[in-house]
Specification:
heterodimer, A: MetI-like fold, 13 helices, flat, B: mainly alpha, MetI-like fold, 2 domains, two-stranded antiparallel sheet, globular, disordered N terminus
């Protein structure tokens, strides 16, 4: 009997510590592998490391080189802007139109949705391989249209350094539009039918109801879509590697492929790290405010 | 009347109006846009090269042949190794299964603590964990490859398992946390009053209702890890390359005659597992996507 009180105390102590104990491995992993590693990359970007890391501080020389002496970086940045603006715009337009169409009490809605969304289940490498074949300058789309009777048709964007970036846009939109559709469809389903009925009673036409009431009320979905798509765009690596390898030349380079090329293939650690840090800061610049507002919103609710 | 909702929504009469027909035409056209690339892949993979050179993208094969499939699976040249996709496919399986199990189980425990056993600081930790969903992985590639070297796990499947487990944790934790938040706290409190502890509540109260979120997490992690390319290309060696890396090497091999039928067969092989998962469990796949997208 006497021993039971301390034993119970020990039990409660363990019980109280248990939640912390369960989280401890994840805590350590995240601390080291996420935050520690980011700090490491940040430090290396401020050194002169080439093939091997050296930890001697060298200031912001790598960043200066990146932005003032490296034309390839500017190509990557320009491509990122071209790619992400077109990618986001087309995904949202296509996704929104399809969501509105699917919201009209369509028969076999699940069937259509399954078809629109299946590319999301595939790797960018798989879909990129397919698009590489479809856009093949000799045997692909060009041959198809010529055999259909348009003998003079040419379509060689894949090997045209000015146009190749747009082939990446085509493949990426095809892959991700269904995802935006799913987000918008969920948003549409969340709108109170009473509002729409009231507008109908007032004699508003269907397109007008959508334009004036439904679409404006989807603003949060627009925001989430833009954030997620921007995030996909900045990280895009796979699709470029398989479709164009960054070429012709380095005309379709993006920050992610740039970083890989310099850090891994050319052995310029500090320079690659600097480009990675720019990518990281760019993502954080819009993710942190977004997460902050999302988390605050749910906590107050 | 074919559709009860029609009248309600459009205010028009019953039957198939012109607008309805137009709607279905648009939906079917969109379906074609999404399906044609896959159709091209399949049809190309069953043609002979002769057929490919004389026909066009969507011309019907004059003769069906599985030669390209057999070659893609067993003998296509990936770099200098003419061994087909087979070995790389199994590399992916050996990489995916342990990382999915580990990240899901740890994520479930984490989510349980974050939702039902909060302690001072746990919410802050959760916010920091959440940020891990969004970091561009370029920022951790270099230190990770050095670390894998120290652990003697460079270019090994074990190394890839470690990487995928760690960077999957923010997602799996988020899934389980958001799901467990919806279990009423009163039930947990009642169980505590009855003398149930951490593990008993987990075992008796929480796990029995967790099947859907396990499915979501497993599907999400399986597709993410199977489809990964960045970690695969950065951290694998010739014996441990996953299927996506092999496919990329195959498609971008510039030596010899380009065999597009083999490329397409290999691409379908690399895509089939996730496509299969998607088709049998589309609903859960969608939940993972939207849960991974809309945080909070």
């Amino acid at each position: 009997m006497k021993g039971s009180v301390p034993r119970r105390r020990l039990f409660y102590f363990l019980e109280g510590g248990l939640p912390r104990l369960v989280l401890a491995p994840t805590f350590v992993a995240i601390l080291v592998f996420v935050y520690g590693f980011i700090a490491w990359t940040a430090w290396i970007s401020l050194t002169n490391s080439r093939l091997l890391p050296n930890y001697k501080f060298a200031g912001i020389a790598q960043y200066v080189t990146l932005f003032t002496k490296e034309p390839r970086w500017w190509v990557a940045i320009t491509n990122l802007f071209i790619f992400s603006s077109l990618f986001i715009a087309f995904c949202i337009i296509l996704g929104l139109i399809l969501a509105v169409l699917l919201d009209q009490r369509v028969r076999a809605e699940g069937f259509f949705r399954t078809i629109y969304l299946y590319p999301m289940a595939l790797s960018f490498i798989v879909t990129g391989a397919a698009w590489k074949w479809i856009l093949n300058p000799d045997l692909g789309l060009e041959r198809l249209v010529r055999q259909l009777g348009f003998a003079g048709f040419t379509f060689r964007w894949l090997v045209d350094s000015k146009m190749a970036i747009y082939t990446v846009v085509i493949a990426a939109v095809w892959q991700s539009a269904g995802f935006v559709l799913a987000l918008f469809l969920a948003g549409l389903r969340g709108i109170d039918d009473a509002i729409i009925k009231a507008a109908q009673v007032d004699g508003a036409s269907l397109p007008r109801i959508y334009w004036r009431i439904v679409i404006p009320s989807l603003r949060p979905v627009f925001l989430s879509s833009v954030i997620i798509l921007s995030h996909i765009a900045i990280k895009s690596f796979d699709l470029i590697m398989v479709l164009t390898r960054g070429g012709p030349g380095y005309s379709t380079d993006m920050p992610a492929t740039f970083m890989y090329a310099f850090a891994f293939n050319r052995g310029r650690l500090a320079f690659g790290a600097a480009s990675a840090m720019v990518m990281f800061l760019a993502v954080m610049a819009f993710i942190i405010p977004y997460l902050y507002s999302e988390l605050r919103g749910t906590r107050n609710a | 009347m074919p559709d009860g909702g029609l009248e309600l929504k459009t205010g028009r009469g019953p039957g198939l109006s012109f607008g309805r027909i137009l709607l279905y035409v648009a939906l079917i056209a969109a379906a074609a846009f999404f399906l044609i690339p896959f159709f091209v892949m399949v049809i190309t993979s069953v043609k002979s090269m002769e057929d490919i050179r004389t026909g066009h993208l969507i011309s019907w094969p004059r003769q069906f042949t599985l030669e390209a499939w057999i070659k893609a699976w067993g003998s296509a040249c990936i770099g200098v190794n003419c061994v087909g996709m087979k070995g790389y496919f199994w590399n992916s399986v050996r990489m995916v299964v342990p990382s999915v199990i580990l990240s899901t189980l740890i994520g479930a425990m984490n989510g349980y603590v974050f939702s039902k056993w909060r302690f001072p600081g746990s919410e802050t930790f959760f916010s920091f964990l959440l940020l891990g969903c969004f970091i561009p992985f370029q920022v951790i590639l270099l230190p990770m490859s050095l670390t894998l070297g120290w652990f003697k796990m460079a270019q090994s499947i074990q190394g890839l398992i470690l990487v995928h487990t760690i960077y999957g944790l923010p997602f799996t934790t988020l899934f389980f946390r958001n799901f467990y938040v919806t279990i009423p706290d009163e039930i947990i409190r009642a169980a505590k009053i009855d003398g149930a502890g951490f593990f008993r509540i987990l075992w008796r109260v929480v796990l029995p209702v967790s099947a859907p979120i396990f499915v979501v997490s497993i599907i999400w992690q399986t597709t993410q890890i199977w489809n990964d390319f960045l970690f695969g290309v950065a951290f694998s060696g010739s014996g441990s390359q996953p299927v996506t890396v092999a496919l990329n090497n195959l498609v971008n091999t510039s030596t010899g005659v380009k065999e597009y039928n083999v490329d397409m067969a290999a691409a379908i092989i690399a895509g089939l597992p996730t496509l299969f998962v998607y088709i049998i469990s589309g609903k859960y796949f969608l939940r993972g996507l939207t849960a991974g997208a809309v945080k909070g």
